[in-house]
Amino acid sequence: MTCGHAKELIAASWTGEIDAASEAKLKQHLAGCDECGAEMSQLTAMWDRLADLPAPEPSHALSVRWQSTLESLTSTRKQTQWRFSLATLWPQRPVWQVSIAVGCLALGLVGGSFLHRALPGAGSGQDQSEIAALREEVSSTKQMVALSLLQQQSATERLRGVDYSVRMPAMEPDVVSALIKSVNSDSNVNVRLAAIDALAKVSGDPGVRTSLTNSLAHQQSPLVQAALIDYVVDARDAKAVAALKEFSEKPDLNPLVRQRADMAVRQLTQYK
Amino acid sequence: MAAVARGNLASMSEIYERRHRALYRFFYRLTGRPATSEDLVHEVFLRMIRYRHTYQAGDGFEAWMYRIARNAFADQAKKHRLELQPEEGHFEVIEGGGVSAFDRMAKEQDLVLLRRAMRELPEDKRELIVLSRFQGLTYEQIGRIVGCETGTVKVRVFRAMKEMGKIFSELQKERAS
Predict the structure, then answer these.
(1) What per-residue string of b and e applies to A219-233 under the rule 16 or more CB within 10 Å gives b?
(2) Would you give the distance in Å from CA A88 to the centre of its chain?
(3) Residue among B8, B9, B168 with most chain A CBs within 10 A, to mutate
(4) According to a count of CB atoms within 10 Å of the terminal CB, is the N or C end of chain B lower?
(5) Angle, to 10 degrees, between the axis of helix A222-234 and the axis of helix A241-248?
């Protein structure tokens, strides 16, 4: 038996995938080969020690998240099937299809005209103010939804919260505070990065810029550090130069991040 | 999985219950990061649904699942290369029971070195050790997952263990000095 074949059999012996005949041959080889014998005993001991590393358990949140994803996938599928059954009712002959379309159009025109005449104050200033009030209500509901999502346990939900806040026409102070809090303390790096992107909408606010500059010193993730540096550069915040210089001198800083911080200092110095 | 492939998505619940812990441990031992590992497990189950038509009963479910898991990990690593380097201190050690405080401390120190040695292994070698030592897969199954012959897998696992042994010895010398 060659040493190469012996190595295969040693590996097989670790997982119990070795038959009696091969085991006997291996023993015979090990008895005559000191190098293979030493490797067998050292590596087998290490293989056994690996069993002492614990078996980590996922959090309960993972199961909750998966269950919710599966439910939404199942319900989407049911809706698709329902839509398919409605589609079968649609006539195949173009003559009928055109007739139905014309009929619906006529019905809409007649109904719209009737409603316009029947409702008092239609098209007046009162309508406009009601529409404005409704818009405001929708905007405040969106804000509530965004704030509520930002506090969820699931990172996916919190990312949705950040997305909601970006889509709001004007970012309210409560939402801005919640996003800054996410940048500072969210456990998930992706949420922190998304919150930094979202805050680009309010980079004109000196308070927001200061909060994010201060946050730099507390961040551990190189990606988040780099995103914060880019933020202050994009915001042309010359006041951040001192903080960036101090940050760049941290001994354990990622070299790429340090390089980016130094470059940011040079860029921002030009705006002073 | 055959039921899922036929369109019965509800059967995924049962597959999830049986496999999600093993998948979590697989990712955790590769990355050392609980949150990333959970995100990857979620992604693998989504991909199983998306690519259910690629499942072939004869090929074995484990091999199919771990192939998806490896692809998900590779995609994540490409996107967040900086974030996926296994971190020191994330791997926990077992409490020793029924031994003296000194023995327990020595054992824990050895385990710290062992997990450091594992962390310092190149990613492909660490993956082979995780698949063979912790995931309970046979060399034949691993061969189907990584796409090579069973004999080649055995040799590669042996070499990965040998390299880890070398790193472990160096770390021990470093500690002694």
Answers:
(1) bebbbbbbbbbebbb
(2) 39
(3) B9
(4) C
(5) 160
Q: Does the pLDDT at position A193 exceed 80? A: yes
By the 8 A CB rule, do B1 and B22 touch? Answer: no
Taking only the tens place, the pLDDT of each residue in A48-104 is: 999 888 888 998 888 888 888 888 777 765 555 555 555 666 776 777 888 888 899
A68 vs A16: CA distance, rounded Å: 41
Q: Which residue from A14, A42, A50 is facing B114, i.e. has the nearest CB?
A: A50
**Which two structure tokens, joined as six digits, stand for A250?**
């941290």
Structure tokens at A141: 């509901």
Nearest to A237 by CA among A263, A262, A256, A264: A264
A79 in reach of chain B (CB within 8 A) = no
Residue type, A62: L
Chosen for mutation from B19, B43, B82, B150 (greatest number of chain A CBs closer than 10 Å) is: B82
Nearest CB partner across the interface for B82, out of A42, A67, A222: A222
B130: number of CA atoms within 13 Å, CB side? 27
pLDDT given at position A120: 62
> How far is C-alpha B116 from the geometric centre of its chain's CA atoms?
15
CA gap B49, B1 in Å, rounded: 10
- The answer to whether the Cα torsion of A207, A210, A212, A215 is positive or negative is negative
The pLDDT of residue A82 is 56
Q: Above 80 in pLDDT, residue A125?
A: no
Q: Alpha-carbon distance A155 to B125, whole Å?
A: 31
Least CA distance to A62: which residue of chain B?
Answer: B38
